[in-house]
Task: inverse folding
């Protein structure tokens, strides 16, 4: 099978790698010239275990080729971003539409087109299907269109792409069957056949479920700071109940999924989606909560920021709440940023960041931060204080004061 994948980002590239490893011929298309040049040399641009080796080998074997333009293929998979439109929170389909239009000259009867990008409910039927119909195709007869959302966790993408169950939302039952044949090339999880609109809403609801639960944990953290209870103990105790799973409070919700997908549902039915919107607002308020508490700890001075990735142990800083926190603190404080997973000429080593700092502010749960070099910190800081917003530091030496979401009430 020959597969053409439009968009070589966090999902498109690993998906391309797996098709190539499973004896398909793969063309990976992207608009970035530099990325295409590098990919054709086997050099990848994302930090994700396992991908680099597969792509290098696939390039050598000539089963993977990166290109600025699509090519004829049996199946086309669209994995481009879907941001949201700031004014009304609706799903911005412009990249998806452009990607669909870009494959029109290469489409032939019998081809399968799959949209993997997360899209708002009804997008496939109302917006995407007409693009192909206008080009003369009859969906379900001579072109097969499906929405099959990706559902993988960064850091575990290869494993999850292979083993997770997948939702296969066909515009017609025949479309779903054809899309199944495509994923059957490498997916070992169940392929669940359904309609496109059910697939769209299921995907958005998966991330909304998590966003709402995180909002509940964040609300608990605020309540506890107010009334003087240890939020982390509450979570630990309550989670001993067999049917309770309180999530973890933090500095806010980042990434390209949880912070965006709930808005796609809200924009479709704002009168009904009350909890969904409130959860978004609560999670969006967390950077201010962090800033307020940091100000209570020290009114001025130098803050060492540890971690700006939205997710621990990755270099992914998309929609990271850390940047809003840094921007808000920058007006009052000298800021030094350390993140061992992100290459940025402005970021510094742990030593340099903590030198003469008044506060260490942990914003990300990288493993490196779980056991910091406390000798170095005690040497570098006069009166060392750590505010751990990810609640990952369990113990510190006596001379270091540790704040986390368990004891913020001490600041009142
Ligand atoms: N977070 C908390 N508290 C928690 C859990 C997470 O504050 O208890 C924060 C994280 O720090 C991060 C954000 O939420 O800033 C999102 O992290 P995440 O690891 O929960 O989610 P994503 O966005 O990396 O990946 C999600 C996953 N969805 C679900 O778990 C339902 C993944 O399976 C999806 O494939 C992905 O979205 C996607 O592509 O939609």
Result:
């Amino acid at each position: 099978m020959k597969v053409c994948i439009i968009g070589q980002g966090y999902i498109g590239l690993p998906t391309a790698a797996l098709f190539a490893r499973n004896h398909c011929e793969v063309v990976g298309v992207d608009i970035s010239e530099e990325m295409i040049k590098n990919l054709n040399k086997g050099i990848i641009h994302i930090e994700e275990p396992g991908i680099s080796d597969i792509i290098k080998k696939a390039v050598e074997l000539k089963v993977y080729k990166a290109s600025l333009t699509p090519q004829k293929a049996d199946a086309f998979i669209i994995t481009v971003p879907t941001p949201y439109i700031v004014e009304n929170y609706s799903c911005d389909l412009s990249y998806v539409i452009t990607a669909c239009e870009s494959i029109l000259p290469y489409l032939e009867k019998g081809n399968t087109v799959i949209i993997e990008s997360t899209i708002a409910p009804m997008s496939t039927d109302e917006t995407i299907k007409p693009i192909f119909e206008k080009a003369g195709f009859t969906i379900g007869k001579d072109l097969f269109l499906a929405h099959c959302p990706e559902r993988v966790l960064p850091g575990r993408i290869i494993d999850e792409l292979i083993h997770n169950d997948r939702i296969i939302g066909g515009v017609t039952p025949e479309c779903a069957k054809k899309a199944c044949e495509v994923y059957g090339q490498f997916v070992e999880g169940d392929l669940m056949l359904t309609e496109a609109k059910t697939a769209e809403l299921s995907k958005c609801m998966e991330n909304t479920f998590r966003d709402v639960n995180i909002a509940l944990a964040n609300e608990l953290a605020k309540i506890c700071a107010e009334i003087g209870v240890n939020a982390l103990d509450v979570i630990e105790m309550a989670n001993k109940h067999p049917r309770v799973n309180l999530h973890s409070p933090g500095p806010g919700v980042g990434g390209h999924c949880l912070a965006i997908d709930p808005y796609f549902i809200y924009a479709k039915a704002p009168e009904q989606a009350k909890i969904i919107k409130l959860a978004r607002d609560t999670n969006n308020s967390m950077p201010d909560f962090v800033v307020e508490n940091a100000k209570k700890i020290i009114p001025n001075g130098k803050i060492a920021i540890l971690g700006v990735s939205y997710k621990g142990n990755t270099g992914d800083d998309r929609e990271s709440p850390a940047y809003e926190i840094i921007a808000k603190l920058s007006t009052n404080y000298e800021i030094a940023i350390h993140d061992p997973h992100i290459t940025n000429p402005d970021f510094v080593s742990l030593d340099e960041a903590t030198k003469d700092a008044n506060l260490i502010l942990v914003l990300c749960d990288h493993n490196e931060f779980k056991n910091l070099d406390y000798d170095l910190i005690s040497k570098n800081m006069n009166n060392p204080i750590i505010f751990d917003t990810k609640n990952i530091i369990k113990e510190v030496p006596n001379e270091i004061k540790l704040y986390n979401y368990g004891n913020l009430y001490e600041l009142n």
About this structure: The mean pLDDT is 97. The chain is about 40% helix and 15% strand. The pocket of SAJ is lined by residues 118, 150-154, 206-207, 210, 214, 247-248, 250, 253-255, 257-258, 310-311 (CB under 6 Å).
